[in-house]
Amino acid sequence: MYKIGITGGIGSGKTTVCKVFEVLGIPVFYADTEAKNIMVQDEILIAGIEETFGKNSYFDDGKLNNKHIAGIVFNSEAELAKLNALVHPAVFRAFDRWEESIDPNVPYTLKEAALLFESGSYKMCDTTILVTAPLEVKLARVMQRDQVSVEQVKARMDKQWSDEEKAKLANHFVINDETHSIIEQVLSLHHYFLNTAAGVQI
Ligand code: ATP
């Protein structure tokens, strides 16, 4: 099945863009949401997390001890890399299971991931989309959505590559600022992907 990876910085609006594709009937795998689910469901992953970060990574009722994990990984690149090395392969396994459950007649699927490029998972996609927005727009959106301070949003942004870095690897772009229509851009990409996925040269 033709696979398209979609990413963008925090607050760029990648989930919003994906919702427009969903309206067009395109199935979307939300890797970041799935990562949260499998951290409490995937036995192999849970065992790996407990082994690496200690048994108190989980509460007795099976819920993830977010505070414990965040305390370890937030200020340590090395510990964050260990967590990613456990979670990313588990997300790939979940994606494979998800893809098997998809109607084979759909023209293509989307995989939305904040760290599509950073994790290397873009290599498993046929093509990629980068959603962009100006910094001040992204900051305002996330502060409003998550009720957090500008410093908190910037700290989260610092953990991701810049748009310039991501743009070097991206094949397609959606500009989600206050002047461009995302619906028009998604329709245009959808038309292009329908033809490309069908093997038509346009
Ligand atoms: P994150 O990486 O934090 O999950 P994201 O890139 O998926 O962010 P969204 O959640 O889609 O971004 O958008 C962030 C916020 O901005 C949401 O509250 C969303 O409703 C709003 N938003 C996104 N695009 C637009 C737009 N074009 N016009 C108005 N609001 C928008």
From TrEMBL:
GO molecular function: ATP binding; dephospho-CoA kinase activity
Compartments, as annotated in UniProt: Cytoplasm
EC number(s) reported in the record: 2.7.1.24
Binding of ATP, residues: 11-16
Catalysed reactions listed for this entry: 3'-dephospho-CoA + ATP = ADP + CoA + H(+)
Protein name in the entry: Dephospho-CoA kinase
Family: Belongs to the CoaE family.
Pfam families in the cross-refs: CoaE (PF01121)
Pathway(s) it belongs to: Cofactor biosynthesis; coenzyme A biosynthesis; CoA from (R)-pantothenate: step 5/5
Matching SUPFAM superfamilies: P-loop containing nucleoside triphosphate hydrolases
